[in-house]
Write a structure and sequence with these properties.
With about 300 residues, this protein is of the alpha/beta class. The protein is built from 10 helices and 7 strands. The chain is globular and about 45 Å long. The N terminus and C terminus are likely disordered.
Length: about 300
């Protein structure tokens, strides 16, 4: 189910693992999964406090940072998860880990938790770009927002030089250095992850069918926020949703405080005894998932 496409040439084992960009501290394991065209630096404001009582491990996603960028990679969420799973397994952790995802990393973390429930102690999803197919969104404003996002993504993909040049300008304006990095080196990983992981997603179903407790954190000023999607997720019995006023897509001080509190809550609370079945009920009623799940 998680198999990668066949390769023409044999590869060294290291080529099938993600780069570990950070591994500090001791204690319960926490794994940080960054978003598209980013790196572990988006978590820098929380890393020192997390590492005071936890083993904090950050990875570079497939195609980004120092991780492999195979020429035959398609950058689907399944492929991202397969690499993440092999990398976590190679660490030989003695207990399940809490996974903290940011942006696209939330989508990967959710699918990972659904695929490998015994390896996950809980999820913290920060600024998740959760989208539904426009045709099933009832609110006309949110339906149009879905359409606009997809048009914007098409525009970005079709204008490589324009996108790279403007990403460099935006990156210089961000308060966190290297929080955004779109370049010729990671262009293919960027556009295919955008298309195959963000646009073609099943995040709502993945979250609904995940067994562990989940904390979802989002800012009121996040430009990638779709309130209707988050409303569906927040109604699931194993999800705790936290709205951070005046916060945007990045992890700044206000969001960081909620993230730290969420991790502590997961570590002190027992696992949920039941899991929301909203995703399953949706399939029963409509015959489809929230998106296109390649495994079904």
């Amino acid at each position: 189910m998680d198999a990668l496409p066949a390769r023409v040439e044999a590869e060294p084992p290291s080529a099938r693992l993600l780069n570990i960009s950070l591994d500090i501290g001791t204690g319960p394991p926490l794994i940080l999964v960054h978003g598209i065209a980013s790196s572990h630096v988006v978590f820098q404001v929380v890393i020192p406090e997390l590492a005071a009582s936890n083993r904090v491990i950050a990875v570079d996603l497939l195609g980004f940072g120092l991780s492999p960028a195979p020429i035959d990679a398609t950058y689907t969420v399944e492929e991202h998860v397969a690499y993440l799973h092999r990398t976590i397994r190679s660490l030989r952790l003695r207990r399940p880990a809490i996974i903290v995802g940011h942006s696209m990393g939330c989508l990967i973390a959710s699918r990972y938790a659904r695929r490998h429930p015994s390896a996950v102690a809980g999820l913290v999803l920060v600024s998740p770009p959760i989208y539904l197919p426009a045709e099933i969104v009832g609110d006309p404003v949110e339906r149009e927002a879905m359409v606009v996002y997809r048009r914007f993504y098409d525009f970005v993909r079709d204008r490589r030089k324009f996108t790279i040049r403007n990403a460099e300008i935006v990156a210089r304006l961000l308060p966190v250095k290297d929080a955004m990095n779109i370049s010729d080196r990671n262009w293919r990983a960027f556009v295919l992850s955008l298309e195959h992981t963000i646009e073609t997603q099943t995040a709502v179903t993945d979250i609904a069918e995940t067994r562990c407790a989940i904390h979802v954190i989002y800012g009121t000023l996040d430009p990638f926020l779709i309130p209707g999607s988050l409303t569906i997720v927040s109604r699931m019995c194993h999800v705790s949703a936290h709205k951070v006023r005046w916060a945007d897509h990045l992890i700044r001080r206000r969001t960081a405080a909620v993230l730290l509190s969420s991790v502590k809550d997961l570590q002190s609370s027992p696992a949920p005894s039941r899991v929301s079945r909203l995703g399953s009920a949706f399939r029963v009623l409509t015959g489809r998932t929230f998106g296109t799940d390649p495994s079904r």
